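Annex B.
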Amino acid sequence: MTVLVASDLDRTLIYSANALALTVPDAQAPRLLCVEVYESRPLSYMTETAARLLTELGDAVVFVPTTTRTREQYRRISLPGPAPAYAICANGGHLLVDGESDPNWHARVSARLAAECAPLSEVRGHLERTADPAWTRKHRVAEDLFAYLVVERELLPEQWVKELAVWAENRGWTVSLQGRKIYAVPKPLTKSAAMREVARCTGADLTLAAGDSLLDADLLLAADRGWRPGHGELADADWTAPGITALPERGVVAGEEILREFLEAARPRR
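HAD family hydrolase: predicted structure tokens.
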């Protein structure tokens, strides 16, 4: 049986120092492995136990890293285990096959966005006009597909995010707040569509998925089974659905538990 595992990365399998959420005394903290370096500084981590579990998983299933990161941002990550044959970047806008973007997939996605959504330029202009410089640190466009802001979270007005979500909804876009980033993403730009394409290419009999944010909800719903950690947008909204397991673990230890769940679900049944 071919098992496909599509997992979000940030705050699902890998964690920044601020997102580790370590609650045990320092002397009991798990050993950490750095899996991402940016500008010569360590940026993202997983526990050494999670690294071992991911290596075991990569040997047993078709493991597909699935992220909203751009291709450049994804390539900074050095995950343990076999190099994935497939990866989903830019929230489904790019499907990497052996490290290279599949041009046919990207063309299909681009055609859908042009036909079904307001243009990126309109959304970007709205963000630039309405985001207050008092709490906005950066304006970014990712892969000419979607836009996001880097903000000071403690200064960010909750009402502004709600109003942005309504504005975006009417134009075929969706909004997600993850840590210090506010994403505006076209609705047809989904991780689930890319996962289904990989499942088709690999002939997967079983699909498993995990994620923590609203941008992961479609991925979890598209899989045969899904898991979410005890932190993130989905947990904050108490989101669940048939086939979805809400884990209580938070922070980097949740990454360990998700990998254990993947391995258990992927084991052949006798």
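DSSP finds nine helices and 15 strands in the chain. The mean pLDDT is 96. Further annotation is deferred to the next reporting cycle.
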